[in-house]
Every structure is written in C-alpha cells, then in structure tokens.
C-alpha cells in the first residue's frame, strides 16, 4: 500500500509504525477496505434517495402510472368493441335477413358503422403498446401514437359524425325490440307432466319427494304481463327455452284451475295435446293446466303443471288469471286505440 508519510512520529501513521509486521498490515488493509466500501455504499444510497425524491423522478413515476392506466383502458376498449361486434352487430346482421326483421341491415350498419375497422386498428395498437412495455418502461410513446393512430383519424371522424344518427336509430329499434308496457310478474319452479320420456331429467330439491315418474319434468317459469316463459336448466347451468311451448302468449291462453273437474272443451284436443289426460289424484290438488289456443294451431295445446305447494298454486293461478284478462282486454281495445287516444286500457 502506497502512502506519503515523511515523519512517522509527527504523522502517527499506522502503516509506518507496523511497516515490518505483515500480519498487522494485512489487518489494517482489511479494515481500510471495509471502511472504503461502507463509505461508497453510503454515498450511493444518498444519491439514490436524492434521485427518488427529485422532481424528475416523481414526474417519471406519474408518467409510467399514466402509461399503465392507458394500457388498461385500451384493453377494456378492445374488449367492449369485441362484445359489440360478436354479441350485437353480427347477430343483428344475420337476423336482418329474416322475413320480419326487427332491424334492417341499414339500421344495423347505421348503429355499428365501422366498429370492425376500429376493432382491428386498436388490436394492432394494443399489441404494439404491449410489446413496447415488455422491454422496458418507455420514455417515448409519441412515435407509436403518431405512426399508427394519426393516419387512421378519418375512421374516428366517420364514427363521430354518425354518432348522433346512430343513437336516433338505436332508440327507434329499442322501441321495437323492447315492449315497455310488459313487466315482470313472478318466477318459480313448476313440474310439467308429459307423455313421452324426456331426454334429460333435471330435478329441483323441492320436488324430489314428489317426482316418481319419467313423465315429470322440472321447469323454471317466468311470468310477464303478456307472456309466460317456460325454460329448462341444462347440466351446464344455462336456461334453455322449451320448443313449441317456451313462449306462451297470455292473450291466446286460458286457465284450467282444477284439471279433475275440467270441462268438455278440453276433451276433443286431448289426443293432440302434449300432456297426459289421466285423471290423477296423486297431485293432491296442486296441478293446473294452461290451454294455448292460437290461430296457427289446428288443435289447442294443453300444458299440465304441478306446483310444489297449494299456496304456490294459488299464487300462480291468481297471477296467470290477471295477466290473461289484461292481455285479452288489450287485444280487444287495440284496434280502438289506433283510432282514438281517449280510451284507456283497463
């Protein structure tokens, strides 16, 4: 170790005092190296703390937070456009080719317009932004924004110009697709009695003690002002609308509260109906029937339901009777409502 001490007595240098003792010199060098390392680490820690507390570092942290929020917002935007296209735009375009479409193809194009072009553009931009963030925290993103989004500004201009008109068309289509006069009344679990053995049996706990036959099928029913929806819950947990009797218009239906005392009106259609006609007293008075008499049907269809309890049956019968009466009165007064506005529905 090199040192420049000229007078040992005046300087008090330990290296000069122990110049001939190699062991002590080695210890001194070790202590000196440790102190130098500690001083360097302390100095570096101070430099790092000063940098962290500096306005420049604070600005970088805020900027990187904004970049991460921008990335998250871009992911959500791409997901929302994908939902718009897959769940609304494409199904509506397919439905527009039907005989009586709720929305024409022009209406769908007016509402969604160039959403597919926007989806493709933002998917590419999201991939570029994600790749830029994977390497290191970016200091510059302007080139990515200018090179990808600025040349496609006309897509946004077309979308914004059409926004007001698309909202107007969407409002008109909602009036057609949604019946604002129809309200939800009740829902519940019922058993439908069939002749044929169903392909898949789904049970409810409240009916486990009651069901003894393959003719009994569990249904989840939803009653609205003008329709009764009959569904079956599949093994995947999703509800599936029953074919033929899944949507029963209340204006074309009638109610038989006590099937054991049913009138002769039902007997001619017993052979053509999809329900059993046996006089079964094992239901303990909890069963009732809904008769669907539509103009499109040659013979009426009878749907035989069984409620879990007598109180449930009474509630279903009361609500069904009210909905049927209101729907039938509505059909009677509907032509008059087109000519005058002074008549109110009961």
Automatic annotation (TrEMBL):
Domain DH residue range list: 62-203
Family annotation (SUPFAM superfamilies): DBL homology domain (DH-domain), PH domain-like
Listed GO CC annotations: cytoplasm
Full protein name: DH domain-containing protein
SMART domains assigned to the protein according to its UniProt record, in alphabetical order: RhoGEF
GO molecular function: guanyl-nucleotide exchange factor activity
Cross-referenced Gene3D superfamilies: Dbl homology (DH) domain
InterPro entries, A to Z: DBL_dom_sf, DH_dom, FYVE_RhoGEF_PH
Pfam families, A to Z: RhoGEF
Origin species: Ceutorhynchus assimilis (cabbage seed weevil)
């Amino acid at each position: 170790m090199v040192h420049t001490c000229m007078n040992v007595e005046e300087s008090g240098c330990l290296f000069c005092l122990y110049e001939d003792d190699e062991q002590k010199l080695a210890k001194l060098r070790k202590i000196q190296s440790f102190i130098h390392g500690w001083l360097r680490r302390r100095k570096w820690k101070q430099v790092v703390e000063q940098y962290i507390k500096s306005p420049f570092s604070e600005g970088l942290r805020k900027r990187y937070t904004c970049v991460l929020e921008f990335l998250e917002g871009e992911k959500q935007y791409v997901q929302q456009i994908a939902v718009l296209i897959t769940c609304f735009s494409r199904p509506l375009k397919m439905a527009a080719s039907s005989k009586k479409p709720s929305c024409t193809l022009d209406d769908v194009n007016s509402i969604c317009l160039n959403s597919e072009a926007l989806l493709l553009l933002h998917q590419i931009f999201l991939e570029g932004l994600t790749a830029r963030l994977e390497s290191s925290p970016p200091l510059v993103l302007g080139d990515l924004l200018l090179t990808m989004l600025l040349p496609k500004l006309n897509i946004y201009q077309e979308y914004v110009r059409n926004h007001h008109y698309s909202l107007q068309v969407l409002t008109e289509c909602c009036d057609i697709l949604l019946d604002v006069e129809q309200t939800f009344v009740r829902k519940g679990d019922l058993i439908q009695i069939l002749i044929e053995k169903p392909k898949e049996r789904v049970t409810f706990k409240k009916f486990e003690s009651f069901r003894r036959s393959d003719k009994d099928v569990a249904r989840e029913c939803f009653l609205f002002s003008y329709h009764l929806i009959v569904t079956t819950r599949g093994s995947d947990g999703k509800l599936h609308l029953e074919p033929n009797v899944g949507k029963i218009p209340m204006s074309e239906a009638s109610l038989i509260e006590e099937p054991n005392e049913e009138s002769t009106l039902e007997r001619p259609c017993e052979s053509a109906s999809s329900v059993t006609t046996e006089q079964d007293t094992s239901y303990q008075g909890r069963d009732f029937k809904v008769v669907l008499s539509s103009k499109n049907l040659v013979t009426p269809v009878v749907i035989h339901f069984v409620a879990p309890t007598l109180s449930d049956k009474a509630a279903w019968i009361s609500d069904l009777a009210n909905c049927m009466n209101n729907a039938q009165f509505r059909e009677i007064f509907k032509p008059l409502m087109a000519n005058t506005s002074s008549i109110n529905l009961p």
